[in-house]
Structure formats: C-alpha cells, structure tokens
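User: I'm preparing a small set of examples for a lab meeting where we compare how different chains pack in three dimensions. I only have the primary sequence for this one, and I'd like the structure in token form so I can line it up with the others. Please keep the answer compact; I'll paste it straight into my notes.
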Amino acid sequence: MAMQSPPGQSIRDFSTWQPVLRLLRAAKAGKAGVGPVRVAGRIGRGSWSLALPHRMPPPGRASQIEDMQEEMDAVRRVQTAMAAAGVDDVSFSATIEPDGAAVLRLLGPSPAVEPGIGTPHPGALVLVEGSLPEPWRRLPDPTPGAKPAPTADPELLERTLRERIPDAVGATEEEIAAAEARLGVRLPEELKVLYRVTRGRWEDWGDDYDTAVGVFDAVRCELSSVDDLYAAEASTRHWSWQFAAKEAVDTRPDDSVQGVVGSPGWIVFGENGGGDRLAVDLTPGPCGHTGQIVLIGHEESVGAELLADSLTDWVLDREAHPRRDRGEEPPLVAHVNHVSIRSVREAAHPGLEVLSVGVWDGAPFSLAPVIGLPRLRTLAAYAGTLADPREIGGLTGLEFLELGPEDWRVLLDAGAVPRSLSAAAITAYGDHDPLPVVAVANEILALWDRPQIIQTVLGGDLGPLV
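Assistant: Understood. Below is the structure token output for the 466-residue chain.
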C-alpha cells in the first residue's frame, strides 16, 4: 500500500531522503563487507533516531550544533516534507547496493500504531480503538470521612499573604464562583482565601516580572491565575501503552495520598518551576486531609507526593512529611530477572497485575504459576525467557502483551493470541531489521481488523560512496 500524501508533496520523492541515506551508508562503510548495506531509522516532526556517529569536539570545547549540522540539515529536509504532507512520524528501512542503487521502504503511519521510541520499529499496537490502560481508567476511591487538617487556618493564611503582597489584586466572589462552576467542585476555603488576596493574573502585575516573582515567593510556587485552575485528571498525564500498561494504582490503608494517575479532586494551582505541578487534594488517601498540598511530578506517571497537610502549612513553610516506607507487601508490579525476583513462582500472588520478565541467564520460565490469577493484566517477556509462549493463551485476562518477534510468531502460528488484549507490543533489540517486525505487527492488527502499517517503496541511486 502507498503512503497517502497530497499531490505535489515530496515525502514520496527519493531525493528527499538521499542526504539521510548517504549519511547512514557512510556510517556503515567498512562494516558490511562488499555486499549490500541495510540501514534503518525513524524521523518525527520534532525528533529522530538515526544510527549516526557524532564527532567528538576538540579538547576543552563542548559539543555545538555545528558538530552535527550535516545530520540536522538532512533530517530537516525530510521533516519539511513530512509537515507538508501532514505526516507526524515515519520509520524507514533501506537496502543499498555497493554501486549506490537503493530501495527505500517507508513504514507507516497507521492510526492503530504508536510511534516507536528511539527505534525504527513500531510502537504499541492499539487493538481496541479508544482503549486506555487500566491505571488511566481508575478513579480515586471515595473519602467521605476526610476533613481539613487542624493546621488549616484561613484567617492566618490571609493575614500572612496580605502582609507579604499588600498591593495584590484579589479575585471577586463572582470570579471564584465561576472557577467552581467550571471545575464542578467546591474549592476549599484556604484556596479561596489565596485568590481573594491575589487572582494571579499577569495583567495585574503590569507584565512586571519582579512583581510576579514577589507573588510567587509569597505563595512559594509559580501561581496560576484563578481562571487557569484545572483538575489534574488522568488525561493530563502523558502516556503510551508500552509504559502505562506496566504501571499500577496502589493505595494502602496508611497512605495520605491516593496512588492514582489523576483525580478530579487534584486542583492544580501552580508549578514549582521545574515542571512539577502543585495541587490541593480534595480526594485524599485514608490517612490524608481534605485540602492537603500535593506535588504531581512530571517524571512520574502515577501518584503524587504529599507536601503539606494544608495550604496554610505550605505558605508558612512548615515541616513537610517524610515519605512512608511501602513495607514488604507483595508488589502489584513484579520484575523477574537476574537481579530482582528470580522466578515466576516467587512473583505470583492474587494481587499481581503486571509481570515483566527481563534478562535472565538460567532456564526459561513456565507461566503456569500465574495462570488463573484474577488481576494479571500485563505481561512483558524478554526474548528467550519463556519455556513455552503458547502458555500465554491461558492468561485470559490480559489487556497488554509485549513479546519479541519470535515469541509472537509462536503465538500466531498456534492461534493462541489472547482475545482479551486491548494493545500489544513487539520488542526488537539492536539492529533488528524492522521489515519482519512490521510483518508480524500487521498480522496482529489483522486479528482485530485494525488499520495496517502501510509501506511505500521508493527506488533511487545514491551514487558511489565517496
């Protein structure tokens, strides 16, 4: 099938790809003998993955753009054509003969396939349109008995803020009510007090950065305006199936914060300057307080960190809470490998949700110990670690499965691919040719009647290697 592209666009012109292919061929010169050279890569609108060496800068000088200018120019040529064609991400594989004759195959896109990460191989295959990994479907548990912390003191909070920022412009009751109506929640009194003192709009500061910094110092964060308050629901956290399916929601009886991905009760009111969000928590954990302050980290996908029992505590910089030890309970996510849990049997327990079998130097494992576990939904297994991949057919509750191409081949030939899957991934390592991986991916997609990974074949001549 040919890649769809508007008439007159150059994404399907071999000349668009020539500079990239010449660089990749030169990088492999002398490594492939006298036969054809196979190269592959991935180019997206804002990133790329190409097996190219980077020149070391002279001693005493840091790397500069000029050190990889040729690569950037070659990639930009392709990205410009992609933008014109409305294509966000393309993987490719090419075979180049010694005389320069080349056959280039463009792989993708498919609306059912996520882009690969740092690889030309396809990312996760979305088998059920619109499906979400289980952690992203989880809502926080109700907490009807939760109350504000004893340290919550709206009057003290207001006095403190007015002393720190006496000339601030506060929000009206109508503006606060509009925020509540938009969010669909009743804001805690402490947060209302904060915005009655300052509504956090840049125009109130005359676009004066120093004035804004004074407000930020007073509230100990980069404050959002009352108009920009929002709920940090699960959809606000970036995810891809290949990683999100390996997470788990875990809230224990002594937790102050629920271990969910997001919550309609996490009302974000600022950032810490490093990309992390601060929120008042209206859905605390079993040992938490309504209105406590939590940090939603940009490097984590699940849970939040308790910063203070109340907004008053936060603004007054009172002692933060230490992290609690998670204890010795069996993990919901188990990693079986040569440096962690050392058997599938040891990892098995009724609460197990995710089983990842990694690098292993012993005999391959049977999956018999985990067959029938009620909550097991994700299995990822490194190539060669399963004694019989056909046992996967007995894992009837799987929603995500990640295997190497060879194990997928066994499952497909045996007709044992679990029909419960919502998504899947094929993990290929090193310099594995993407074409066989794409062929396996299309077989899996076909089982769910999902759009295939299309291929566009282009021919051309790169000329002799200089």
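A couple of notes for your slides: The chain has a mean pLDDT of 91. The longest strand covers residues 37-44.

User: Perfect, thanks.
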